[in-house]
UniProtKB/TrEMBL annotation:
GO molecular function term, any single one: DNA binding
Keyword Phosphoprotein: no
Organism: marine sediment metagenome
The protein's name in its UniProt record: HTH tetR-type domain-containing protein
Pfam families: TetR_C_13, TetR_N
InterPro entries listed in its UniProt record: Homeodomain-like_sf, HTH_TetR, Tet_transcr_reg_TetR-rel_C_sf, TetR_C
Presence of the UniProt keyword Heme in the record: no
Keywords: DNA-binding, Transcription, Transcription regulation
Domain annotation HTH tetR-type: ranges: 10-70
Amino acid sequence: MNSPIQSKATDKQRQILTIAQPIILGKGFSAVGLNEILKTAGVPKGSFYHYFESKEQFGCALVDHYFEQYLTNLDRLLSDTKLTATARLLTYFEQWKTTQCDDTSQDKCLVVKLSGEVTDLSEGMRLALKKGTQAVIDRLSLCLAEAAKENKLNLGNTKTVTEELYYLWIGATLMTKVHNHPQMLEVAMHALESKLNLHQH
């Protein structure tokens, strides 16, 4: 069992990570100084290294923290038996489209924000992103397999198809930022619906 001091530190780490997430989603990892994060979190400047060994280790913890929340929400959606598997998939990607097209930094995709920036700078953060995205793909793959049965589709290897769809959506999200227009995500949604043969219904 953790001592009270260790538990308190963990709570403070979570507080710092929660406050830092929207700041980094807005500005990027490299552009944000530790002082800005600590000031916003109400943490004394000198105490950062009490909670994190380095900015890189903080970055890895940030990615883990993000995926912990993300996967909790994803599991809640994908386990909703009131919806068909097809509806669960469509709801997930519709939420993705909506959150990436609004102006709320808190709901933006940290994978898109950090992938191009930190993967060459931090092996630890790259591996954390890889682990998190793989966990998302694994969950979506199970749901896609169920949806394929519902729609009597032969998709072949659903893991491969899920990877194709996920990578398409990541790329479309990036291009949405480039074009400042949701058209790319609409293309990705059309591809998903085609894969599920929904245009025939």
